[in-house]
Design goal:
Marvel; transmembrane; 8 helices; mainly alpha; Synaptogyrin
């Protein structure tokens, strides 16, 4: 009973173990991605704008392309919120009793993580290109150069942290529900009270114990048929 799992987590109702939670690879990757998003957002928001000696208006250090800075700030802030949301989902995930709901959560993790990996790839290419073509006269002192390079570097690293999250979520999806009893108990609890185990004590068995050769055989057949694994909640293919 203790080994039963569905999509990488045990049966609902267990106690939350913070040590085990923070040792999980998916939790580590989410925290790392969360930290990367803070670095990218902070670098561009704090040092991503500069102006010339004779200019009042500030410009984006990435080739004076305002879209580059906006993209980095937006991606960093949204990735931060997304990491927080999925960390909260990971904490709540073992308490989800429905196998179908767990499946939806894992599929959402796969899709969202893959999406963010792609978006960080686009962001890395965009920021790197704009930094490469930045004119020296636009920023002769190279102000914010370290921040720009840090944003580009951590955008590159974010590609792999989010891709890793998508891969781990796919591994959890492949695990599926490895216990029929899990889905039987939580998907349809009324099936636990099925009358199959009691049918062998009714009818002809009580009235004619002496001639119960055929009746006893029928009761045994009914009992076996009730637990032969062919019921609707005994196996689920995903």
């Amino acid at each position: 009973m203790e080994g039963m799992q569905a999509y990488g987590a045990g049966k609902a109702g267990g106690a939350f173990d913070p040590v085990t939670f923070f040792q999980q690879p998916q939790t580590v990757l989410r925290i790392v991605s969360w930290l990367f998003s803070i670095v990218i957002f902070g670098c561009i928001a704090n040092e991503g704008y500069t102006n010339g000696p004779k200019e009042v208006e500030e410009y984006c250090i990435f080739n004076r392309n305002q879209n580059a800075c906006n993209y980095g700030v937006f991606m960093g802030s949204m990735a931060f919120l997304c990491c927080m949301a999925f960390l909260a989902l990971d904490v709540y995930f073992p308490q989800i009793s429905s196998v179908k709901d767990r499946k939806k959560a894992v599929l959402a993790d796969i899709g969202v993580s893959a999406f963010w990996s792609f978006m960080w790839f686009v962001g890395f290419c965009f920021l790197a290109n704009q930094w490469q073509v930045t004119k020296h006269e636009d920023n002769p002192l190279r102000e914010g150069g370290d921040a720009a390079r840090a944003a580009i570097t951590f955008s590159f690293f974010s590609i792999f942290t989010w891709a890793g999250q998508s891969f781990l979520a796919f591994q959890r999806y492949k695990l599926g529900a490895d216990s029929a009893l899990f889905s039987q108990e939580y998907m349809d609890p009324s099936q636990d009270a099925a009358g199959a185990p009691y049918t062998s004590f009714g009818g002809d068995d009580l009235e004619s114990p002496g001639g119960g050769g055929g009746g006893g055989g029928g009761g045994q057949a009914n009992s076996e048929g009730a637990f032969d694994g062919t019921g609707g909640y005994q196996r689920q293919d995903y």
